[in-house]
Amino acid sequence: MPFYNSEEERRHGREQLLQRQKHLIELCYKVAQKYLFEGKHEESVPAALHSLRFRTNVYGLNSVQLVPAYLLLSEASIGLGHVVQAEEYLSQAQWTVLKSTDCNNEIQSLMHRNLGLLYTAKEEYEEARYHLANDIYFASCVYGSEDIRTSGGYFLMGNVFIHQNKMDIADSLYTKVTEIWHTYLDQHVQNQLSARKQPADILAKELENDTGLDEAQEAEAVHILETILEIRENTGKEKPASILFILKTVAILHYLMMNISKAHELAVKAYLLSKELPNKEDVTEALRDLLGLIASKDPVTLKAAKFFAGQGQ
Length: 313
What we know:
The protein is mainly alpha-helical. It has helices at 7-37, 41-59, 67-79, 83-99, 105-121, 125-143, 148-163, 167-195, 200-206, 215-235, 240-256, 260-276, 281-297, 302-311.
């Protein structure tokens, strides 16, 4: 803090410092989250530690606001195989929550999700399921049961059932996750398709790609959906409709993230699969529309889009 000549200047300076610290808390938290979803556990640790340090400076050592940083450090430790270290961070988080009178459902959800990850890593699957069920409950209280922020709990629960060789239950949970993300992402595509019918001066603005997600949420979406796609392709050959659904969802995600070549590759793959399945005319038409949007962002794919549009005539 610099030297100020008056109490008013000092008060204003303290307020500005506090705002900068809160901004850094959020920035470090999102960076650490992004690295975790990308599987870069070691790289996430410095950002999580900075988030913890700034939280301590702003809120104090006993504040429940420290819990999200402890949970990030726990998750990074699990990813690095440091289970004992993860348990220490989780114990600190639990102790902080027990001492707090203002712990909200969002933090409860995060804590149970991390406990679910810990017990999954320890292969204690019944305990993992218990905590992930609590995660889903608390997340549903905050966001609703059909929200993308709740879907992570369903996904992790599905992973536990995979470990227990309960494939039918895991399949239903992965379907739930895909439906939630498809509903969210497809709405952005439908908005763009509607915007294409608008006057030219409105069109340019309306067709700007935007997932509505921050970088950490986009990394989470890629991790969850591509993991489900890999599992579907490896284990679900007898359920091509499920493969088609997740292919389309991942294609939309990459399109909205402007990963155009990846989006085109997945959309073409989904389109060709849809032509092989009975009663999939609506999906085929939707994929032609998606290929058209992809072509509008990349002239290289325009020829392919015209080819598939011609096939639908």
